[in-house]
Specification:
four-stranded antiparallel beta sheet; diphosphomevalonate decarboxylase; five-stranded mixed beta sheet
Length: 330
């Protein structure tokens, strides 16, 4: 009753922010993302008949807060399998955790993918996506590779709030340079940030009302491989999400000085004809999406920004997949 899986984080181009049902992690809006290749979470899950407690390690250490979320996710899988076995879970990221790089998305996608296999559950990726969403909203997207859309759904039980692939990574192989401007965990997590925004931001209704139009523009851009159109809608959605959060009470400021300077640097490159655009999630890291031919120029420009600690380079990747347990510690 053991299995291991690897999943990659995803970066939303048309952003998800806000929940219509916090218990089920149902979003108020749909979203479109890209799955990354070089950043990963690897998770080993072993269910032990006769054991009642779960033992969880994240990056080699016990994490009580994250352990509670993992236990809740395991309970969903155990309920589907009709068992009450305790589990031993070891998970490792090769990138900063809880720092605005979607570690929860890759983490819970890998957990659901591995846990379902360990319990012998024959679940489709769509079914796994629904379960992963219950654990961490954007994890619904990390089950799939390339370009992915997550529907907000309309059903109260959330069964139609599921992710689906739009386009394979190799069909439009863009690159992403990730400017790391801090490795610290963010002070206000996404769940709390979304709750505060929904309750206090005067822009909440406008955010919801305009999302379907944004999604349609992004779908068309992806279908037509129109980089300029995708650049415009991605930066628009990013800045609109942060404006929504900034207007909460108290305002949510996920950026630092280097974040802002990186965005200026990316815009300056695009004005010079370099095919690149930025997006920023709920954290200080800047993701610069570009044509493969521009990746070295983009990385050099971001490294030149004061306050940038490192620049990661990744292609677009595939969805969650099985690995051997030994690879988790490799």
């Amino acid at each position: 009753m053991r299995a291991a899986s690897q999943a990659q984080p995803n970066i939303a181009l048309v952003k998800y922010w806000g929940k219509r049902d916090a218990a089920l992690n149902l979003p108020v809006v749909g979203s479109i993302s890209i799955t990354l290749e070089s950043l990963w979470t690897r998770t080993d899950v072993r269910f032990v008949p006769g054991h009642k407690e779960d033992r969880v390690s994240l990056n080699g250490r016990s994490d009580e807060a994250e352990g509670k979320r993992i236990k809740a996710c395991l309970n969903l899988l155990r309920e589907r399998a009709g068992v009450d076995y305790g589990a031993e879970v070891a998970s490792r990221n090769n990138f900063p955790t809880a720092a605005g790089l979607a570690s929860s998305a890759s983490g819970f996608a890998a957990l659901v993918h591995a846990g379902a296999r360990a319990l012998g559950l024959d679940l489709s990726l769509a079914e796994q996506s629904v379960l992963a969403r219950r654990c961490s909203g954007s994890a619904a997207r990390s089950l799939f590779g390339g370009y992915v859309e997550w529907a907000h759904g309309t059903l109260a039980d959330g069964t139609d709030s599921v992710a689906r692939p739009l386009l394979d990574a190799e069909a439009w192989p863009l690159r992403v340079a990730v400017a790391i401007t801090s490795t610290a965990a963010k002070q206000v997590g996404s769940t709390e940030g979304m709750r505060r925004t929904a309750e206090t931001s005067p822009y909440q209704s406008a955010w919801i009302d305009t999302q379907e139009t944004d999604l349609g523009v992004a779908r068309d851009a992806i279908r037509e491989r129109d980089f300029d159109a995708l650049a415009r809608i991605a930066e628009y959605s990013c800045l609109k999400m942060h404006a929504l959060a900034l207007a909460a009470q108290p305002g949510l400021l996920y950026w630092n000085g280097a974040t802002v300077e990186c965005m200026h640097r990316v815009r300056a490159l695009r004005q010079q004809g370099v095919p690149v655009f930025f997006t920023v999630d709920a954290g200080p890291q800047v993701k610069a999406v570009c044509a493969p031919s521009a990746i070295e120029q983009v990385k050099a420009a971001l490294r030149d920004v004061a306050g940038v600690l490192d620049v990661l380079d990744t292609a677009l990747g595939e969805g969650a997949r099985a690995i051997v347990p030994e690879a988790v510690e490799a």
